[in-house]
Amino acid sequence: MTGLNLRDRDAEVEDPAADLARGRALRAQTPRRALAELGSCGRSATEILLEQNLGRVPDLVGLRMARMLVSPLHFFRGAAAVMAADLAAGPSSNIDVVSCGDAHLSNFGVFASPDRALVFDLNDFDEAAQAPAEWDLKRLVTSVILAARQRQLPEPTARDIAESTAAAYRRALAAVLQMSVLDRFYLRAALTDRPELGADGLAEVTRRTIERARRRTSERAFAKLTEPDAAGTPRFRESPPLTRHVPLADEAALLAAVAEYTASVPVDVRVLLSHFRVTDIAMRVVGVGSVGTRCYLAVLVDARGTPLILQIKQANRSVLQDYGGRVQPQSLQSAIAAHGQGRRVVDGQRILQAVSDLLLGTVRIDGDDFYLRQFHDMKGSVNIDELDATGLGAYGRDCAAVLARAHAQSANASVFHGYFGGGGKAIDAVVSWCFRYADKTVADFDQLTEAARAGAVEVADHPLLG
Question: What domain of life is recorded for the organism (predicted)?
């Protein structure tokens, strides 16, 4: 995102004291207590979701709705557009940082860094763009509340966990901003260096998450998802609707796109990929909110039969733009015009993550934008249903600290720190908003459920909904 988050005056040099003062002054425009006010965008959640479905693969729309109707938390995961619209309808700090746009609990996790160490960080950037810093925080805290309710924890306990999550963000942001710009850039949560990530009720869950992540490799996915054809060439197993082959014309376009991607990556990655050849491509359903967007897997093998699986995922406009109404910098708009929405996703990931997949790249296919990355490169997410109250609180705080580190890469982070302050006013306002929004999410979930029962919303009935 070249030029993203430039300061108001290009010649201005970062001045932490001046930034803090500027942030405090902005409280006059939007008092921190105003962050508790829940606005209404004037549209129902169901209406927004059905509008999103119009641009998706028609025969996967029912699967998307089915996955969202598993629980209010699943609904929330798929309703980033709804929340962006509701956030835009209420007061905000208007202090923009490079934002994840979908910073709920399940979009944090572990994955392998280029040096093969396991790190803990944000891991989803489909909605990445500039937006007010508290929008990401509100999405995280609301997900914590919904998770606490899903675990049937008492409301006072849920409030304690929500407040501790918001407070952890504030503390971490203050701590990271005390570092030099270079130190905060290199800061990362490597599990081997951060044993506290496994403390406070998280130890056993963290161990299981790490074990699952270490098993999620291209080799394991290769063994699970492919089989040799009569000539011994690896092909994806058909498993509709989750995995299925595409028409030959689409496959030809995808093969050409992989070749174009290979020619555009840095030279070291290009040399690495030159050892591999594509043997098959198939459509693959992933996630909750992403269901119905075009997502493919390409299996590649080298001369020894070593597999590499790449994910080719459609990149649409960020909900922060389309539903949150956030106008993006001209530099980002120019980059998107030249390289597509995949550039926004990839650049957002590189800014917000401490370390990123070296194989990240972008491509356009028949007018649609895509980005590419490794599939199952030791990626793992914490199973929320495995967490007790203590573990959920610890995990919420860990996610908040990672989010603060990500926001601290932006020039306006110190301004937001000045605005947010060191007391409890902003935290109380954010948590109050999030409890109201958790209630709204349940109401939206019930509304979608009723629409599905009435036949107004298509919902798939398939045994592979997990």
Answer: Bacteria
